[in-house]
Amino acid sequence: MATPFEAVLILDFGAQYTQLIARRIRELGVYCEIQPYSTEIKDIIALNPKGIILSGGPSSVYEDGAPHCSPQILDLRIPVLGICYGLQLISHFLSGRVEPSDRREYGAAKLKLSGESRLLAGLPPDFPVWMSHGDQVAVAPPGFKVTAATDNALGAVEDVGREIYGLQFHPEVAHTPDGKKILSNFVKGICGCKGDWSPASFIDMAVTRIREQVGDGRAVCGLSGGVDSAVAAALVAGAIGDRLTCIFVDNGLLRKNEFEKVLKSFADYSKLNVKGVAAGERFLTSLQEVADPEMKRKIIGREFIEVFQEEASKLGEVDFLVQGTLYPDVIESQSVKGPSAVIKSHHNVGGLPEKMKLRLVEPLRELFKDEVRAVGRELGLPDELIDRQPFPGPGLAVRILGPIDQNRVRLLQDADDIVREEIEGAGLYHQLWQAFAVLLPIQTVGVMGDQRTYEQVVAIRAVESLDGMTADWARLPFDVLESISRRIISEVRGVNRVVYDISSKPPSTIEWE
What we know:
This protein has 513 residues and is α/β, with parallel strands linked by helices. Helices cover 32% and strands 25% of the residues. It is built from 14 helices and 18 strands. The strands form three sheets. The protein has a nine-stranded mixed beta sheet with strand order 2-1-3-4-9-8-7-5-6, sandwiched between helices. α5 packs across α6 (227-240).
């Protein structure tokens, strides 16, 4: 269904970072949607996009089973931009020649312009780009003009008459400094988008969709204490008013004193009707002796839903469950938007039971975290909710590696609270995407006083990121790390060693499980 404002459609061919293209375009004030490469022509026409982008991907266009969209896309008279694999697919469809590169390009390269270009207008004669390809377009399709190249390969082509454009490099990544300008040339200059998408326009669209979905029904919202569920709740409350009841469940896996703090924050924000449910013993009993992280997520997802359904039954007739599912949750959980690899399941995506009485309302499903924060500010949510660092839906269950029991939860809560205090005390809280403690499933030898110890290891994780899809480990000052380590070992009984995680995402993930 077409959106109420102009949009660009991205067809996903399996690139793990297709969403980066979407982020960059939304930063330009243009809404976009990501759909599978196999989306049918009639559905593309129904979306009424102002432009279509064909993403990169790991396949070779000439291999059996390679993902191909319908060639009819090139006949719709809608501007098309192919990026990497997308360019190669366009060339394959239009009688160009694609073949393995004699010299594959991965990483930084210098692109040189070779003539006037509508797509590359306003750029210098040569500029750095980021390449990642093993195949190349050896011969451009008839009617196409080569507008840029590296020393090794064709870099950009265009057929202005048919409004079809292609780039061998990746404009969406930060390593292509002029990439945002190139994307702006496409979506605003070529597609004619005005850039009318904003948090306010998203709210208008979301409220309309929520009212259409819920009708005269009632809903419950599972609050986690984080920004995602809070913004989702505020959106739904704005759409259906007091027919929404918010439920904040203490699953026994929250941060130290979190249950009381969050209930107070929501009480100060009077626009939401919030009910607290203490269910920690129930969750921990279900998780006894469970070590597998995917099983933990599924158990927690199941218990959450059962608690919500039980509480909903006390309210009378309730048909809907509101969740703060974000686009990264969807991408990392299942290949619903294309053939991208599954990284992990989230409790609110992959962990839901097959048979559930409540129907889901997920108003943030297509947003990134920074967009959610912007929407929350537009809705007037308090800063203490908007600016909180992300916290996983399964809570400390995915930060306690191995089996979970009350003592291990207590130990991690105390260690994590020290991390938070020290990070805040150093003025670093809002500079970091996340900073937290992880309890490892190993013990090490130590010496405390005159006694030999054999106790637990805590890992500290602190990362910098814009949206959680990629992240770099934070270079915390040594004095802050020293203070965190000293306090945890001194104050948390059962820990005799603290280590610091210096892994980035990728190849690692932010959470350890």
